[in-house]
Amino acid sequence: MPISWPKLYHLIQLQMKVGLIGYGNIAKKHQAAIAKIEGCTLDAIYDVVPVAAESTPTFTELKEFLDQDLDIISVCSPNGLHAEHSIQALNSGHHVICEKPFALSSEACAEMIATAEKNEKKIFCTMQNRYSPVSQWLKKIVDEEALGQLNMVNVACYWNRNKNYYKQSDWRGKAEADGGTLFTQFSHYVDSLYWLFGDMKILNAQFQNFDHGDMIEFEDTGIFSFLFHQGGMGSFAYTTSCFEKNFESTMTLIGSKGTIKVAGQYMDSIEYCNVEGLAPTTLLANDNLANIAAVYRNVISNIESNSTVMTTPLDGKAVVKLIEQVYSFR
């Protein structure tokens, strides 16, 4: 039987008006997720480029957008603008949901958090992968220490990002606006490590740009190793140079009482599980849109009744700080 996970939100009673900053690919996913939530409406969209959005007012002037009657603003702009846009939205009296990465520096994250506190508003980080059935299953196993002593965790993310991907926008591949491959492509999986196992010490890292030439101003391939503060060691290998298409994302956990490997394009299936005393498990299929909708439900519930937050702003900052530590080896 499928596992039924406890919900981290209550029945939504408030009518929440949402505005989007940025209207690229991820913002369209937010738009579709918002449409799934009763009591939540998309009431405004801002982008520097004029947007054609059915039945939703659109703006090309940020001040005019921020003056709208909105409860939550979701920041879906390029990475390098996350901090600036979040701070402006908070100073305008709105709660904020910020897409990953939270910002491109831990100092910027701290400023975002301080601005929220100053304005008595809330800021949240979008890490929807925490809601996937496989992630929830792993979290339960780790929290219950079913693997015994954790010895090793290895992550491998092998994707493709071709020339057309970088040609689609003027910010992708630029160090100041994009930040790097770990920020843009793989911060969800750095977050998975942090969420499951806590903080870690980065021991070393290596980087190469094999296939992207001057299309990008940073690496397309990297590997780093780490020690968990709570014990255990591991490595993280990643690339955007796979031939033609994404290959897979995997996490292998090796403990004194079991071994687990999760895989699939988005680390959303169980490939191997041999854990002492653990019965075979059937999980629901992963649904990324439903996961984003769950982020909104959790945020709204927290605003309404101060319920538990799945991803706190301090979590968002911690992930950025880990990526900073990795990139300090450049």
How would you characterize this protein structure?
The longest helix has 18 residues, at about 290-305. This protein has helices spanning about 25-35, 60-65, 80-90, 105-120, 135-145, 165, 175-180, 180-185, 185-195, 290-305, 315-325, and strands at about 15-20, 40-45, 60, 70-75, 95-100, 125, 150-160, 200-210, 220-230, 235-240, 250-255, 260-265, 270-275. It contains eleven helices and 13 strands. The strands form two sheets. The chain has a seven-stranded mixed β-sheet, with helices on one face. It has two domains: about 15-130, NAD(P)-binding Rossmann-like Domain (Rossmann fold, 3-Layer(aba) Sandwich); about 135-285, Dihydrodipicolinate Reductase, domain 2 (2-Layer Sandwich). Helix 4 packs antiparallel against helix 11 and helix 9 crosses helix 11. With about 325 residues, it is of the alpha/beta class. The radius of gyration is 20 Å and the shape is globular.
Beta strand %: 15-25%
Strand-pairing-aware structural class? alpha/beta
CATH topology of the largest domain: Dihydrodipicolinate Reductase, domain 2
Gyration radius from CA atoms, angstroms? 20 Å
Instruction: Indicate the percent of residues in helices.
Output: 25-40%
Q: Helix segment count?
A: 11
CATH class of the largest domain equals: Alpha Beta
Question: Strand tally, please?
Answer: 13
The separation of the N and C termini measures: 47 Å
| Unreliable segments of 5+ consecutive residues | 1-7
User: pLDDT average, as an integer?
Assistant: 95
Taken in chain order, the helices and strands follow as EHEEHEHEHEHEHHHHEEEEEEHH
Write out the strand line-up for the largest beta sheet, numbering strands in chain order. Answer: 8-9-10-7-11-12-13
Q: From the coordinates shown, what is the CATH architecture of the largest domain?
A: 2-Layer Sandwich
Count of domains: 2
